[in-house]
């Protein structure tokens, strides 16, 4: 099960497992926050992810694109080692680490 909770204004926290079975739920939850609150500075804390696979990387990358297109900024904190490893293989590690 995946949860995306608002920890503070402009700060979201991912908790649980983000894989193929939960990616659509997480993706839509993120989009709902970004659309509702508009373009702004966002931080997503990923340190609460218990499990993640390539689906997690896809969700995180799409969130970056959505926020960037809306004129906002997004960066991630606490990326798990597994997410970093997948991002490195996919050559998107720098993008996930620096945000947009």
Which tags fit this structure?
100 residues, alpha/beta, Transcription Regulator spoIIAA, 4 strands
Word description of this protein:
With 100 residues, this protein is an alpha/beta fold. The chain has a single domain, classed as 2-Layer Sandwich (Transcription Regulator spoIIAA). The protein is 46% helix and 32% strand. It has a four-stranded mixed beta sheet with strand order 1-2-3-4. Strand 2, helix 1 and strand 3 form a beta-alpha-beta unit. It is globular and about 30 Å long. The termini are far apart.
Task: Outline the secondary-structure elements.
Layout: E1 2-8, E2 11-18, H1 23-37, E3 41-52, H2 54-69, E4 73-77, H3 81-89, H4 93-98
Parallel strand pairs: 2-3, 3-4
Antiparallel strand pairs: 1-2
Radius of gyration: 12 Å
Give the fraction of residues assigned to helices: 40-55%
Mean pLDDT: 93
User: What is the helix tally?
Assistant: 4
Stated plainly, the CATH topology is called: Transcription Regulator spoIIAA
Widest β-sheet, arrangement of strands? 1-2-3-4
Poorly predicted regions: none
Question: Class by helix and strand content?
Answer: alpha/beta
What's the CATH architecture name? 2-Layer Sandwich
Beta-strand content estimate: 25-35%
General shape: globular
CATH superfamily: STAS domain
Secondary-structure element order, N to C: EEHEHEHH
How many structural domains in the coordinates?
1
Counting DSSP E segments of at least 2 residues, the number of strands comes to 4
State the end-to-end distance: 27 Å
Main β-sheet description: 4 strands, mixed
Top CATH class = Alpha Beta
């Amino acid at each position: 099960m995946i949860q995306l909770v608002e920890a503070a204004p402009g700060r979201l926290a991912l908790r649980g497992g983000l894989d193929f079975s939960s990616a659509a739920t997480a993706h839509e939850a993120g989009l709902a926050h970004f659309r509702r609150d508009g373009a702004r500075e966002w931080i997503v804390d990923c340190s609460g992810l218990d499990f993640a696979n390539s689906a997690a990387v896809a969700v995180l990358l799409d969130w970056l694109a959505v926020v960037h297109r809306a004129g906002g900024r997004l960066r991630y904190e606490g990326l798990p080692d597994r997410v970093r490893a997948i991002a490195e293989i996919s050559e998107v590690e720098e993008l996930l680490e620096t945000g947009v």
